[in-house]
Amino acid sequence: MRRQSGHPDSIPVVRLALPAYCRYSRGVSEGQTKGQAGDFLVIGYGNTLRSDDGVGARVAAAVAELALPGVAVLVLHQLTPELAEPVSEARTVVFVDAAVDAATEVQVRQLEPAEGAQLMAHAANPRTLLALAKQLFGRCPPAWWLTVPVENLEFGEELSPLARRGYETALAKIRMLMAPVPCTTNPNPRQL
Q: Which tens digits make up the pLDDT trace of 163-182?
C-alpha cells in the first residue's frame, strides 16, 4: 500500500529525534507497510528521569538504533490502551520494563492475555494490552515480558551498576528472542 507524503507511516525509519515518551523505529524496507506479517515489536517503557526506572525505555532505544529489518520499536513513558493496535499487528511482541522487586537477574516470561480488558485510569499493563488487542482487533500475538532488576528510582538519568548489567543482558535476550526458531519449537524462557 502506498502512503501519501506526510502520512505518519510513509517514513520507514524514525531516528531518536522524537520526545522520549514516543520513539518509533521501523527497520523495514521502503516497500513494506504497517501491519505486515513478520514484524517483531519491542516496547520499552519507564521514566528516564527516575534513574533505573528508565532502563526499559533505554533498552528499546538501543534496539531502535540497530534499525533491524522487520523490527518495530516503541519507547514510552508508560503503556496506554492505544498500543493495542500496534500490538495486534505484530508477529511477536516483547515488553521491556524495570522491576524493583525482581531477583538480581533479568527475567523473561511468556505472556498470556489478561482475563478481561478492564483498564484502571489511563495506564495499562502488558497482559491487558494483549487482551485489548484480541478483543478490539481479533488478534493477540505471542508476547514476552522482559523485566530488568533495578535499585535506584531517585531523580536522575544515570543507571545503577545493577541496571547497567541488566541493560546489557536484556539486549542479549532480545537478540535471542528475535533469532529464527524452527517452526516445531517455541523459545524456552528458561534458556534465555
A: 999 999 999 999 999 876 55
| 27-36 contact pairs (CB < 8 A, 24+) | 27/66, 27/67, 27/68, 27/69, 27/70, 27/71, 27/72, 28/69, 28/70, 28/72, 29/69, 32/70, 33/1, 33/3, 33/9, 34/9, 34/89, 35/89
Location of C-alpha cell 523485566: 147
pLDDT higher than 90, residue 31: no
Read off φ and ψ for residue 94, nearest 5 degrees: -125, 120
Domain limits of the chain?
34-178
Report the CATH number of the 34-178 domain: 3.40.50.1450
C-alpha cell at 8: 505518519
Q: What is the maximal distance between C-alpha atoms in the chain?
A: 48
| Single pTM value for the model | 0.76
Kind and range of the H or E run holding 172: helix 161-178
SS3 at position 84: helix
More confident residue, 160 or 14: 160
pLDDT digits (tens, 9 = 90+) for 64-111: 999 888 999 999 999 999 999 999 999 999 999 999 886 789 999 999
Per the listing, cell 546489557 goes with 168
Cα of 35 vs its chain's centroid, Å: 16
Q: Are 77 and 20 in contact (CB under 8 A)?
A: yes
